[in-house]
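Researcher: We plan to redesign the surface later, but first we want a full-length starting point. Tokens attached.
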């Protein structure tokens, strides 16, 4: 929950690189270079043409469908039998709408008024749900949920992409963001959007092929055959087979995503001046990730499956406890064991910045044990700062890129924001919310794990727990999206709260300036689509944060 995750450049009163400073990097001068870049941002390429063509095609299909229905009416299913479900759905809409009042009255009259009636109703609902599980067309449901989720995400991405094609700065940002900085941010966003749309389409098609052609059972069988042939392990070694299956699936997924990761790092990030990594560092990080997955992931999967198999119908309680403990352990060891494998952490040198951060920590009684600067510039010029640790062993980490981008006052203001997360117990709240999400996942999984119909519908002859969880994750996707939206909403509230805390300390102006600088340097989205940002963003858009900081009724300085 870093302040710098949605942050950016200069004072809110003065546009970054305004004509008063004639900054060569952020200049507002109407020169040919900026105009040429603006033209490129406005220009719609092949991907945009394809999107427009698909949208037009959908509109035409809908119009033609309604015309056919209007002309042929009840004869349409006879002429085109494949349209029978669509015809039934459309013709059933009026009856459904007119039946809503009667349905509501029936529900009201049947609503339980005594404990006995409530118990009877719950028993009836449980029996109905159990019957539903036996007859549910699982594969069709997974395909429908998967494509519905993909289309929704793509719709939001297209809305956001339309915003990124704009080169005229909105009034809300024109006072502190120069024309060139705004265009550069949108150009970066468009390149990310293009790669993201292609990547998501590839992933969706791959998921569809995996489901339709039962590739998950094929992989499970292949792993089992290899175990039997090379190690003599049969079906009784389900946990071992599950761990190996998980490794194989992860390797395949990593291989399929590798071209997109390489393009993102060495083309998109490099083009916009962010990537500092080399192919050697990239491969090293990849191998380290595999190693960590083997060291931590394998035992965790084995332990989780053992718990599920040994604790009966209430396994979700024990599985949740295991995951909660693992999550806490991971938080403890990540900054001291895992992250140093990827970055170098050095004590922040003595000087003005260290003294100012230590003074702020002492002022708030923050139990600061270590103050580090991390070599984020080794891989990227993106910047960040965060607080980590439990109890009386706290650490503050500042990226070297943030030190290069911001003044001492601005960095201290950003650290004040991070300490606001600590002071307001935001980490603990997010941890509790995450536990609720994990518990909900395991509880609902408990309703499906023993349902043989789910396994057979995907081509499985046996019922291994790990395969059941894979299938369940596909079904659980829509609910997981809703829960993640709730987590993002909570996170955005925490960000406003932490900003208000920093403002209360007297850092309003410095925090606003720091946020603007980091936002511009990171080329973050300065004018996001409201629906896109509400659904995807864990941090509020920059303008909303600056408006809250400038509001005299929000957290006046008292400390």
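Model: Full-length starting sequence:
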């Amino acid at each position: 929950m870093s302040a710098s995750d949605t942050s950016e450049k200069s004072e809110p009163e003065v546009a970054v690189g305004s004509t008063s400073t004639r900054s060569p990097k952020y200049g507002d001068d109407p020169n040919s270079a900026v105009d040429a870049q603006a033209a490129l941002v406005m220009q719609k390429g092949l991907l945009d043409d394809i999107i427009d063509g698909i949208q037009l095609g959908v509109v035409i299909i809908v119009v033609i469908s309604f015309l056919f229905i209007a002309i042929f009416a009840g004869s349409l299913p006879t002429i085109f039998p494949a349209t029978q479900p669509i015809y039934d759905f459309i013709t059933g809409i009026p009856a459904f709408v007119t039946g809503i009042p009667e349905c509501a009255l029936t529900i009201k009259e049947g609503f339980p008024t005594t404990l006995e009636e409530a118990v009877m109703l719950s028993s009836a609902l449980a029996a109905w749900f159990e019957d539903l599980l036996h007859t549910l067309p699982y594969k069709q449901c997974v395909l429908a949920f998967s494509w519905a989720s993909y289309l929704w995400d793509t719709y939001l991405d297209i809305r956001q992409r339309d915003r990124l094609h704009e080169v005229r700065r909105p009034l809300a940002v024109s006072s502190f963001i120069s024309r060139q900085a705004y265009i550069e941010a949108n150009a970066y966003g468009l390149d990310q959007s293009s790669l993201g749309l292609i990547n998501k389409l590839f992933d969706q098609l791959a998921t569809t092929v995996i489901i339709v052609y039962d590739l998950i059972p094929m992989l499970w069988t292949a792993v089992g055959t290899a175990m039997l042939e090379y190690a003599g392990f049969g079906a009784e070694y389900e946990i071992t087979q599950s761990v190996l299956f998980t490794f194989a699936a992860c390797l395949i997924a990593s291989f399929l995503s590798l071209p997109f990761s390489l393009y993102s790092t060495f083309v998109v990030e490099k083009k916009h001046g962010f990537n500092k990594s080399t192919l050697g560092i990239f491969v090293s990080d990849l191998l380290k990730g595999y190693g960590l997955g083997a060291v931590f992931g394998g035992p965790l999967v084995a332990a989780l499956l053992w718990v599920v198999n040994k604790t009966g119908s209430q396994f979700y309680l024990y599985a949740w406890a295991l995951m909660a403990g693992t999550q806490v352990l991971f938080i403890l060891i990540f900054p001291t064991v895992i992250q140093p494998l990827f970055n170098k952490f050095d004590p922040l040198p003595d000087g003005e910045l260290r003294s100012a951060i230590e003074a702020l920590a002492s002022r708030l009684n923050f139990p600061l044990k270590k103050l580090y600067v991390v070599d984020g510039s080794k891989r990227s010029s993106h910047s960040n700062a965060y607080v980590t640790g439990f109890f009386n062993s706290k650490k503050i980490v500042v990226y070297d890129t943030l030190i290069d981008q911001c003044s001492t006052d601005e960095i201290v203001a950003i650290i004040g924001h991070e300490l606001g997360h600590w002071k307001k117990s935001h980490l603990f709240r997010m941890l509790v919310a995450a536990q609720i999400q994990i518990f909900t996942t395991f509880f609902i999984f408990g309703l499906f794990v023993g349902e043989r119909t789910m396994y057979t519908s995907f081509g499985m002859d046996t019922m291994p727990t790990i395969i059941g969880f894979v299938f369940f994750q596909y079904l659980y996707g829509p609910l997981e999206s809703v829960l993640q939206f709730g987590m993002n909403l909570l996170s955005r509230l925490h960000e406003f709260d932490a900003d208000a805390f920093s403002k209360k300390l007297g850092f309003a102006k410095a925090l606003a300036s720091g946020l603007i600088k980091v936002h511009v340097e990171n080329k973050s989205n300065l004018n996001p689509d409201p629906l896109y940002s509400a659904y995807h963003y864990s941090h509020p858009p920059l303008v909303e944060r600056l408006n809250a900081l400038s509001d005299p009724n929000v957290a006046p300085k008292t400390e």
